[in-house]
Amino acid sequence: MDWKGRRESKNVEDRRGMSGPAVVGGGLGGIGIIIVIIYTLLGGNPQDILNTDTQAPQSQSTGYKSTAEEDELADFVKVVLADTEDVWTDVFAKEGKTYKDPTLVLFTNSVQTKCGNMSTAVGPFYCPGDQKLYIDLSFYQELKNQFKAPGDFAMAYVVAHEVGHHVQYLLGTSSKVSALEQRASKAEANRLSVKLELQADYYAGVWAHYVQGEGYLDKGDFKEALTAANAIGDDTLEKKAQGYAVPETFTHGTSAQRMKWLERGYKYGTIEDGDTFNAKDL
């Protein structure tokens, strides 16, 4: 992706090196952490499955020293966030709406949010309580090494997906789904979650559609995003964690579904073509 020398978003809080208590319910480890990632990776609400304390004491600096590589990655995600600001401001304007920029929080190890105190183990996430997206930049290495999804555009997809959840928040989709989930069975709530996540994938594709139109994508960039989407499908993650997949437990969609909706957003570049809730076939 052509990004160096371009505008960086100012809507960024750099909390790297700030320590604070983070609780991952039940002291999860090994498969447990993978299960947490299955639920929260790329947009799930971590508070649904984590035992969190929203009244934790203030974070404190630990004298953290970032590497040059990490700082370059931070600059990269700031450019990606700036692109999402430009794209969604224009898309909302076409719909007669006003887009409100979210804030990106960079953190290490743990972070305090309006959704609770979170550990790096939950993966990148969006918190509607403070309208902020949270990313530990070490996730880039996880994408490359654990999920076999290398490339800067794979990380860009992660950011764009989380911004997609912010778009859902602004459009009122998230609150409607949350209300429906309160009255739904566990199986139906999971199906609603899948539709919400696939729509966020679609919105990530919308962003990529416009970035491509500006000539910022290099050959093979979008394939990197598709590789990441494929790697984090519920079926793929569950098979990796336990050797088999249980469709009734899916909360984000299969690898095929995630790639399909990401590609659809990339193709159409509109809000209206991303209605996963009324789609006959996900």
Automatic annotation (TrEMBL):
The keyword Protease applies. One of its GO terms (molecular function) is metallopeptidase activity. It comes from the Bacteria. It is a single-pass membrane protein. Its main location: membrane. Pfam families: Zn_peptidase. One of its GO terms (cellular component) is membrane. The keyword Transmembrane helix applies. InterPro entries: Uncharacterised_pept_Zn_put. It is found in: Membrane. GO terms for biological process: proteolysis. Keywords: Hydrolase, Membrane, Metalloprotease, Protease, Transmembrane, Transmembrane helix. PANTHER family: INNER MEMBRANE PROTEIN, PUTATIVE MEMBRANE PROTEIN YPFJ. This is Metalloprotease. It comes from Rummeliibacillus stabekisii. The lineage of its organism: Bacteria, Bacillati, Bacillota, Bacilli, Bacillales.
